[in-house]
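[job 4471] stage=fold_predict status=RUNNING
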Amino acid sequence: MARVGNMSLVLSFFLYSSLILCHFTNPTSANIELDEDNWRQILEGEWMVEFYAPWCPACNALAPAWKDLANRAKSKRLDMKAAAVDVTKSPGLSGRFVVTALPTIFHVKDGEFRQYKGPRDADSMLQYVEAARWRQAEALPAWKAPHSLQMGVVAHFFKLSQALRSVHNMLMETYGLPTWGSYLIFAIATIFIGALLGLMLVCIIDLLYPPRRSDKVHVSRAEADKRKRNDKKSDDELINDDIVDDAENANDSDAEKNSPSDTSDDDKAKDKGAGEGEGAKADKPETRKRRPRKAD
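[job 4471] inference complete, writing structure tokens
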């Protein structure tokens, strides 16, 4: 009975010691998991955020340094907190932050995002925060900030791609379809959805901007024939008028050519030319022309 009592005392001692150690070291602070629901808490205060995947060897190698960074930041009473994002569980966040490599580390200060590109040890990362070396790095522009509207749209596309990937895996693993069979199903679904969206878009445009329709007047056949005859008659009259106008223009042009004013002007010009010729002859000395001899 004494041994049993001693064993219970030893177990109680180890249990209380573990609780006290966990309280003071707070190992969970090194593993603050962010997801689609609670990620906006990093918009306030100072954070170091790691994006990782369980299958990534570099991420697994960084895990001890990341926990050490969180513990040392807390022991020095820094306002910085360390958090991590599992991209396999939260693909939308990887789209918001445009994560293209793993592991990727971001420094967040009062809603300003900067990517950490220094050494991946606890001392370097802690010095990056304590010495405020993050001021030397350029912050992400407003249009690329994770909390902006456009990056929210990108996040939804990433989640959609992850959902399609899971459907693809389900078709291959659960239903045993080949790869080309899954691709064929996706292609048919894409064409059908595209045609449906196009039809909906056309209907919306027709509702907003209805086409203009000319008012149709019903005319009997007799009245239509009468209008045709009138139109033909008017066309003939126009043709005759054009012929008469051409003939009148031709007569007018002949009359203008033979008008007395023109002939008088021509006569005056000829008389003037003749007078000038006589004057020129008068000015020149007379020269006798030799008559040709008659043949014997």
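[job 4471] summary: Residues 1-5, 18-30, 272-285 have pLDDT under 50 and may be disordered.
[job 4471] exit 0
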